[in-house]
Amino acid sequence: MRLRKGLRGCLFCLAAVTVLIMAVACSPSSEGNKTTTPPTVEQPVSEQGPPSGETGESGTGTDSGNLSDAEDEEETATGDEESETSAENMNGSAGQLYAITFEAMMELDEGLNHEMNYIAVDLSEMTQLTEDDKTYIIEYLQDFGTEIRDRTMDQLMEEENPEQSSPSLKGVLLRVDKVEINEDSAQIEGSKYRSGTGAVGAKITLKLEEGAWKLSGSEMTWIS
To answer: Which residue ranges have biased composition labelled Acidic residues (predicted)?
Structure first.
């Protein structure tokens, strides 16, 4: 009986020692077996492009800009073509004849052009002119870089200073007094007026070449 108790005690002790040995073997050792966790490296944040919606808007804006530029160029080209076509349609017309005549008058005694505020053309007696003729004349003379008016002397005086005893204008008045037109030529007499002491008479000669009026000659016939 005592022998059994002794064996049982030995077995119990042996089991306890075994468990203790296994526990020691499995427990982490000191610094040699210690697991080291690597430091966390902060990754750089990559730059992100704009959201797809913004990209689309930006792209659309650029495309719209390009499209707008293209449309503007097309409209400009169309406008130029229309202007050229309009000018070509006026070849040989009364509008072209008098536009060139008035231009030639303006180049006579250019001292009268000094500090002029406008160029006035008296078309009141020229009943043969159409509205297209008148419009062409006004547009043609705009190359002089000033306002173009369709006025008579009385209208200009009423606008500027109706109480003046001696008419003196802030601009230049061009008038046609006599016209001779043949099959392929024309001679026009008129005047360029600034004041009672600043005016010239003009004789303008034109030829019809290839269906269009062209200046042939110009001269002053009198000076005041």
So the answer is: 69-85
